[in-house]
Amino acid sequence: MKKMIIAALAAVLLLVLAGCNKQTTPEDRLAEYISHWNKSEFTEMYEGYLNEGTKGAFEPAQFVERQQKIQDDLGIENLEVSYTAPPEDTEWNEEEPADFPVQVKMDTIAGPVEFEQQMTLLFEEQGEEEGWFVEWNPSFIFPQLEAEDKIRIDRIKAARGEIMDRNNVPVAINGGGFNIGIVPEKFTDETKKQELAELLNTTVEAIDGSLNQSWVQPEMFVPIAKVARTDDKVIDAVVKIPGVGAQKTSMREYPYGESLSHVTGYIGSITAEQLEERKADGYTAGDMIGRQGLEQALEDRLRGKDGLKIWIEKPAEGSEPVDIAEQPVEDGETVQLTIDAELQKTAYDAMKGEPGTSAAVDPETGETLALVSSPGFDPNRFMLGLSGEQYKALEEDPANPLFNRFKAAYAPGSTLKPVTAAIGMEAGTLKPAEGITINGETWQKDAAWGDYKVSRLHPEAPNPVDLNIALVYSDNIYFAQQALNMGAETFIAGLNDYGFGETIEFPIGLAASQISNEGTIASAGQLADTSFGQGQMLANIVHLASMYTPFITDGTMYKPTLLMEEEDGQVWKEGLVSAENAATLREGMRNVVVDGYAQSANIDEAPLAGKTGTAELKAAGEDRGKENGFFVTYDSANPDFVLAMMIENVEDNGGSDYVAGMAAEVFK
């Protein structure tokens, strides 16, 4: 029995030893190697799988570190290595090499790369181990790559897309400016450095830093700063300094400067935070990026896509470079606006630098022809960079040129009255020819209103007060009573029909107009205030201009657009006012200019019609606060556009008629 047990154990031991002695095939070894390769485990590949000849030819740094650096530099992702399996009945001879076709696929920053190479495994002993080992060379990184070759990356910068107005007049273009620089051997007066630094918005230390660069030679032109082509004053001053010159250079230009500054915005050097956010999109340190306005809003369209080329540089003289992958350059899109740049400039100039905003809208298409925030800033200077001192001066400027007023919403004051009238007429509660007797400067519905009363500026308005007289004299009491007659529910529904509470889809975000903070009217007093654009009501300037378009189109309001590519005449609201009621309102608004308190708009050049408005912004502890003045107008004989304009703080300038005079300048 004992002999039988010993024999059985011996048999088992022989089987185990036979299993241990089973040789791993070259295919098994290759599969393991490729598994590590797909995981970019280069150290494991080098130490455990390369044959002695390869290790003798290539140090670990040449294999491990080089491949890792190439992957990082070229942004290699989705590496996929496979091999063509041999027939199942293949017998391997340890005396002969084992060859396998290996397929390599990957994505790089310049596009996909795909190739096939033949990989050889050799049977050999390494220390106490014997088996199949990989024979490797750099062509398994990229075909035709050799040990002494260098991999190069060329970046071809995409041209930034330009912005044009509706007539293809450029408003943001890839134009030119000047590099201001010093030729050291000719710059002999050191005392001029401070003067130059002040002119170029830099420091003496920064100038010295440029001049002390290792490559600088006495006869060379050393760039110090860039200056916009339009900055004649600075250019003329710097070139008068001996040893200082100006050389032309490519540069983003904004030909309409301040007048379109809040629309175009500007580009500037990418910040560290922006780079972190956009690195995956191909941005690099030193790139320019949209910082405000359409330059920022349309960044992805304007930027384009840089071209990239990965290639092998051969050290031997006369050797041809080998291309690996190439991504062609894609220049940014050219974007055309609905804006008329000359109309925009005319409107901006008419506002004379006063804080305010204006918008012109085509009533038949909804196209925005002008979109002004005043005062503006010079985007050319912003693009080149402002000193902290200069930026602080702009921030502390009482006129606040950095604030984009056309994005904001304001109490529209009496400019709302034609809309209130239209809602009442359509509801059947307001009869235009029916007069109301109104006496005195103030009125209240009943004693329940307590101290609250509706006031009017022109108690001399003749009785009975009908719609025409109410418009001409801008009678708050008339419109408050009409709102009370129609009721809050009808009035709110009518205002919603005119777009209150809706966000206008616009490339540059506009604050939504509101009836109130909650979108409701909580009391009769609030209803009265809202009827003449006060209370908690707010409207943005584009919407305000658009609200007057149904009076020209007999009831249709088109969606405001800013890009020419958008479809013209997209109906936003329709059936707002009948043709008969629209005609009544047009007549009344013409009379506002002829007989009312917009006399500054009663010009010979164009028969203007419109409505003024003043919104009082009371400050705590004051009997009378600041006032924003409005005028919304159009040429009644040729209503190509509706112009809405707001000027801040008109209380000492004649109120809304002051704004009417500015608006009239646009039509002149």
What structural class do the secondary elements suggest?
alpha+beta
Question: How big is the Rg?
Answer: 38 Å
Per the CATH scheme, the topology name of the largest domain is: Beta-lactamase
By DSSP (H or I, 4+ residues per run), the number of helices equals 23
Low-confidence stretches: 1-21, 619-623
Mean pLDDT: 92
Helix content: 25-40%
GO molecular function: penicillin binding; peptidoglycan L,D-transpeptidase activity
Protein name: Penicillin-binding protein
Pfam families: MecA_N, PBP_dimer, Transpeptidase
Organism: Planococcus koreensis
What is this structure, in a nutshell?
With 668 residues, the chain is α+β, with helices and mostly antiparallel strands. The protein contains 23 helices and 25 strands.
